[in-house]
Design goal:
Chains A, B, C, D, E, F: This is Crotonase/enoyl-CoA hydratase family protein. The structure is a homohexamer of 270-residue chains. Chain A has 11 helices and 9 strands. Chain A is α/β, with parallel strands linked by helices. Chain A has 2 domains: 205 residues, 2-enoyl-CoA Hydratase, Chain A, domain 1, CATH 3.90.226.10; 48 residues, Lyase 2-enoyl-coa Hydratase, Chain  A, domain 2, CATH 1.10.12. In chain A, helix 9 runs antiparallel to helix 10.
């Protein structure tokens, strides 16, 4: 397994555990973070054995968001011409976005397990995951507003599809803290747990359950749900028909049917 | 009234009652089901007297989804060439989808009343209805994942617009059971009732209430809400302006206004 | 400050207070209302000092919706040719829609504070606001259905993005009353308050909080959330990258950073 | 082969010849025409042996467009209520459109061979074909404008993608005649022939050539070009990747490769 | 008739003649131009008697594009903060765009008659017209590239739909001159005339011809062609069905039919 | 300058010359080709000095398209499960597409210079370029149809926007050869030259001309034209307004203005 500076990565029983590992910096997202996350999710995509990803943060907090040093450094690289600065900034933003697109576009489900702070860029990150679970004392905030900027790596794009439009605006304009209970009430997380131990167990159990399903079926399902975030119902129906035209010829249906008949657990190839 | 093999259909007091009627097979969707549902909803569309549809399942359960014999039969029809098989499968899927599109595109509101099992294809079906109501002991599951396939007749396309994105993915990846109470909490159904009697009464009352409204107004309202599922706000505004350019010239406005003035119930033509 | 016939407008501490002021007519929306609201929101857009808008209704009720006299008058202007009538009606509807588009497109956040009746056109209006807050005894109803028509100034276009699809249809087909508590449960309002005093205080506090943020950041945030209502995630990401290419060169980031370092409140230019 | 009232249909050497056959009425499109064309193209879709369609008009002219008696009859069916009339007319138009959608959506290429008049509804029809060829003396006109109406069965929707936008508007506003030479210059037809004999030979040769190609490849190609008329480049790329994921597993590639190696004509299964 | 500073406007025989009238400045587009064009086209929209617009430039040239003084002035209004400057510039650009949107969205056809120079902003303008005709010695150039900027009032948005994509890019990157003959070859104009006299006569004849058609039919036709520039074929078909649901109830169809029967010219009401 | 196996790359006078360099294999696209083209265009994107790209093929022909050995090899990697094969093929196609997306998305204009054969994949490639120029004896063919497959790396997606829809279908269904003259007539190339020497000179002159323009202006222009291929006019107008909000603050406008005043050639920074 490759070693990373900002992450701790492990593949166990078909579940890839990806943990942000800069606990002494509240898992702030530094330069290494933004590069490595792309490599990690490419590896997940290409590794058939990895069927599900659990994304977490080591230490007391999930993540405090982008490392302010990174922002400060970007500012120092600007020159005199506003137009050329704009061109450079635009590319840098697109590059940062690409890091979280890698999470969003990963063909395996990504489950976020969140405790403590989940601020700024960390919201952008979990909005790119498939599902979110947290402890009661988790603290969410769209912090970018207090940095004098509109969030630009995904929160404003992906979160409105996850939580209600009215609450979305309140949170984005004020940057106020949301705890675990409210996060569940507004649909930001699927479920809340009393403490980190319970959270870890529950997420592990969920990951294992999904890892036991047909990889062909899971992949198609994720692809379609992602597709529907941005497409029409009729386009989605046509797309799944074309997709399943090939996938229904897979052995996984027979494996599933045989298991169903014999009332045993199916065992799907990677 | 036409007789159907898989359905029991009745038109009473402007409400069309469409019940899946294969209780001994847990209302599994067989070949007759997929054909007849298209005819039934075409009849609803063309019958001015039918102003609202109540869709239900006879017996203890709403429906166990697609009949496995139908799937097994489809598998036997495949030949040697993967490409030609894909072409055949693609058409079959599109044909099945068309059955539920007939429900979705019906110009009258369709209310689903659900008790007991509502599994696999049955979720695809109720996602194509306007509104859903159920008993507390209803059991919902996106069962397709356990057949080794991605759902392909509408669940993955329509449900994300109805329930939250995060919970959508959890349910689609795991296929776990959701009961009536949770179904209401996540927006899958509008309301839950203690038992089947209460459910039937409530849905009947709702259907009657809607049946008493202006058919012109109901039709326009449904058309617009459906349109907005897939279109931009500005396109929707332009569309309703064009639509109402004709419909505001209808007598129904005068009937409504007169009733409003005289504080009596309006009586709209079919 | 300009004087208006249908509104009371005030700018205080960077918050524009816009109150519908026809309390003796339950704030029904007359001809003056539809014209003046465009002027008011243009003024808000062009007045840098106005950073947030609070929209309310004077008297016991928020608003009973469109003035029926206006509708009656429109009906009298129709001639003999159905086609030419349609052309005229279409333009009138587009013109009414433009009044609420002015609210929706306003580049400053608009907060609606609602008590008592909020009926018909008033729902169209609050659906064009950023966020909604109400008293417990507020009464919401998509009243248009009882006038024999499909709502055509925004409710059917904007509300489905705010509340759940299933409940949206129930409310639009039946026109039934929704009180404050249910409004919060379905996401129609963000929060409910015991009485008008509490509502006013809470909304004022929220408005002040937002008014203290960077205007550049607030504007970008609103622009992006609006954009995402109708666009794809990838388009949204590209758009914010282009937007922030200029905006990250603003002084507001430095002001925010300095305040963050010195743990003081930032003071942003208008 | 089924007998039709408005058509003459023949399947020969894998080419389906579909000729409008009301020469004494300048092939005007009567009630039978609109119904039968749907049946014919469904038959083409389901008949593997039919690989290409040649659409033509028997007699001196291709077609004079919709039969005026049909229009007159529709007018007599209208009642007193403008709204209910609108509802009826809207459905009738959608039904007529469906007849030409059957041509557009046919999964085999459709080649139009045109001589003499091609007026009004006939333009709507050929705009739904894949390619158009004509004699020098062909006469095209968007005649609807002179009936006091905007064309509503496809010309205004499909033709702008085929000919230039500027010329499109000139022809639609004036209804002026376009002869074969100009039709080729503006891209309305691919090629012009001196007389009907040459036209028939050339179209037959083209049809035979296409009929000899891999049906899998032709079908995919048509599907993609149709898809691109309405979709983004990135969506199109993703769609063909999903499509070819199945189709590249077809035997047709091996047949083609073997023929290429042996420098012989490939012989593809239907 | 209102008097304008930058235009000469006349309504004669149902044709509105709108001429840019700053011949001594090569019809450069000054502040008055951008404001007045909005008023003029609003007047056209609201004046039933005006059925077609002919847009021309007085003097030797059509127009040299935006007045450089206007640009220079805009530059002087910028302050120190890049972000606030960006906000101001963005609004100014949107405001200029609105001037040409008024042309594009005008519900009557707009015919451009072009002689001599047609440079920079003048290309943006004619791209917003329905059809373009010119003299042989007309000179077109996408001049903005030589001002160090990307054209931002419509050329890059509307022209690719009118001329071929490959040539579009060549012209936009190089700003090279295109004469009348080439303009016709690439579809930029519909036809070219030997001199100004012939051009004027031909455009006048065309305008008169269109002015004699049913205003209801012309309006619907323009609306649909504009709609198709940005929408899918299926959306367009649904839209025209809804549109014609009202418009086919107009008297114009009967007027047209009667004229057709009696072989006389129809006379449609405004 | 990096050395490549399948390309010869040179940067001279601000023009990047990228030549496919496998003349002994008719520049067939092998594995190295598909990888290296991504690197080359990333380098172009990141190299400010490279302002324009000229893409050509060394030897007698531009390119014969994909190397058949590559296709044959892909076929050998397939396993027993149709579903897993489909997943693998889908990824391979997406990866090949990414190679030409790199050309399409390059922020500098790419000019294709074509002589001799331009077959199959070579059409996909030139469709991703900005503009195309060729010799009279160039030979174009959408060859994929004769390999038993639908083209899947861009031809069917991008070419319909460049040439007419009717001719597009004829060429895609038949795979017939198109020479230089016809290529120009249908808009596939902008201009045709007598021989390779003239072609090279003309393309070099064009490249130099574009390289002398403001890089800020060229980049924005390309971005906008690409954007419009897939977006609505109103979205495009909003996007350029946001883009130019930053870019009009660039020094390039002043440089251009000063040069204009002094009637000298402007000299823009990279």
């Amino acid at each position: 397994m490759t070693q990373y500076q900002a992450f701790r990565v492990e593949l166990k029983d078909r579940v890839a555990h990806v943990a942000i590992h800069r606990p002494e910096k509240i898992n702030a997202m530094n330069a290494a973070f933004w590069d490595e996350i792309v490599d990690i999710f490419r590896w997940v995509d290409e590794t058939d054995e990895a069927r599900v990803v659990v994304l977490s943060g080591d230490g007391q907090h999930f993540s405090a968001g982008i490392d302010l040093q990174l922002l400060a450094q970007a500012a120092t690289q600007l020159g005199d011409d506003v137009g050329r600065n704009a061109d450079r900034l635009r590319r840098q933003i697109l590059k940062l976005q690409a890091s979280f697109n890698a999470v969003d576009e990963c063909c395996k489900p990504v489950i976020a397990a969140i405790q403590g702070y989940c601020l700024g860029g960390a919201i952008d990150l979990i909005a790119a995951c498939d599902m979110r679970y947290c402890t009661l004392d988790a603290q969410f905030s769209i912090k970018e507003i207090d940095m004098g900027m509109a969030a630009d790596v995904g929160t404003l794009q992906r979160l409105p599809r996850i939580i209600g439009d009215g609450m979305m605006r309140e949170l984005a304009y004020t940057g106020r803290m949301v705890d675990g209970r409210e996060a569940q009430a507004i649909g930001l997380v699927n479920r809340t747990y009393a403490d980190r131990g319970e959270l870890t167990d529950a997420v592990q159990a969920l990951a294992s359950e999904i890892a036991a399903k047909s990889p062909i079926a899971i992949r198609g399902t994720k692809q379609m749900i992602r597709y529907m975030r941005d497409h029409r119902v009729d386009d989605g129906l046509e797309y799944i028909a074309t997709w399943n035209a090939a996938m229904l010829q897979s052995a996984d249906l027979k494996v599933a049917m045989a298991a169903h008949m014999s009332k045993q657990k199916p065992d799907f190839a990677d």
